[in-house]
Amino acid sequence: MTPQRHSAHLLGIEGMGPQAIIPFLDLAESYALLSRSRQAPHNVLRGRTLINLFFEDSTRTRTSFEIAGKRLGADVINMTVATSSVNKGETLLDTASTLNAMRCDLLVIRHAQSGAPALLSQKVEASVVNAGDGMHEHPTQALLDALTIRRHLGRLDNLEIAICGDIAHSRVARSNLHLLQAMGSRIRLIGPPTLLPSAFASAKNVTLYHSMEEGLKDADVVMCLRIQRERMGAGLVPSEREYFALFGLDQRRLALAKPGALVMHPGPMNRGVEVASTVADSPQSVISEQVEMGVAVRMAVLDRLLRMRSAA
After folding, report:
1. What is the spatial distance between Cα 45 and Cα 106, in angstroms, rounded to a whole number?
2. Are 290 and 223 in contact (CB under 8 A)?
3. 138 catalytic, yes or no?
């Protein structure tokens, strides 16, 4: 198997600066405007093959990549891992060999193990996009969150952004942390001690809070994270009712943030646990727009990576 020599992959946000991030956002903005105008995008991926390889369930992200690829004219293949040879004992490296034989151009992978996309990127000839790996990163989620924020607030620098909930296990939080730090914003991480590692306290422009009331004061953006129910079974957080009482976002707590502060959630959302329905459905909520921007961002990522690969 010949190792891949080009660097046209998106494996994570860590290490990316504004000069690498902004072109993705600018291109995604153009695709968002194109989609809203209902004009057909250019078939920049005509004759190209995109494979979605999801080892973890994620209807939202997989569908978003599928729509993005099809809107750009690509042939899109969704590989169902549960019924594939991978589930019968095939190793990731064997899978890489199979994918190389298929001669696909773009490979989107979600995997439970951190580093799996990076490993594949060294072994396949396709451009690899990390759609979430373990507790490591979820770069396209951070890009779509950033695009949503920029569309509403006009910038990504000098903002006070609160990220609330299960920070310890969240690849979304990590990618957003890297991106928003790189763009010059200040981050408040809010959560119970069991879900908020003290190691984050040493990160640049990051402040830790164990109180929603303290952490939300004058925030420009409030980003809530999904609490997985298995965390409760493991004793890392109290019951859903207790969690909402301590860390749920309701109207009273949202009022502590700046007037008009954005409310965000990567989904799927547990109403009444992380966010009250009155907040999720309020004018300040941009949760539905995040889904819309997800398609635009993934179109931009697929488009830009293929151009980078062709230029390599």
Report:
1. 10
2. no
3. yes
Q: Answer yes or no: pTM beyond 0.90.
A: yes
What does DSSP say about strands 49-54 and 186-190: parallel, antiparallel, or unpaired? unpaired
Question: What pLDDT does residue 108 have?
Answer: 97
Instruction: Output the pLDDT for position 69.
Output: 96
- Residue 102 vs residues 105, 134, 223: alpha-carbon distances, Å: 9, 26, 40
- Kindly name the residue from 2, 5, 83, 88 that is annotated as catalytic: 88
98 catalytic? Reply is no
Q: Is 110 a catalytic residue?
A: yes
- Give the 3-state secondary structure of residue 285: strand
Instruction: Report the alpha-carbon distance of residue 127 to residue 306 in Å, rounded.
Output: 7
Clarify whether 278 is annotated catalytic.
no
Counting every residue, how long is the chain?
312
Q: How many CB atoms lie within 10 A of CB 28?
A: 28
Catalytic, out of 9, 48, 62, 110: 110
d(CA 99, CA 91): 12
Q: Which residues pair with 184 in a beta bridge?
A: none
Cis peptide before 192 (omega within 30 of 0): no
| Residue 262: strand pairing partners | 221
Average pLDDT of the chain is 91
What's the distance, CA 235 to chain centroid?
A: 27
Active site residue 71: no
Task: Write the pLDDT tens digit of every residue in 217-275.
Answer: 999 999 999 987 666 556 677 788 999 999 999 999 999 999 999 999 999 999 999 99
Least confident of 102-106, 155-159, 237-241, 302-306: 237-241
* 255-152-303 Cα angle (round to 5): 140
Q: What is the pLDDT of residue 57?
A: 81
CA distance 132 to 138: 4
Q: Cβ distance 189 to 196 under 8 Å?
A: yes
Q: Are 127 and 99 in contact (CB under 8 A)?
A: no
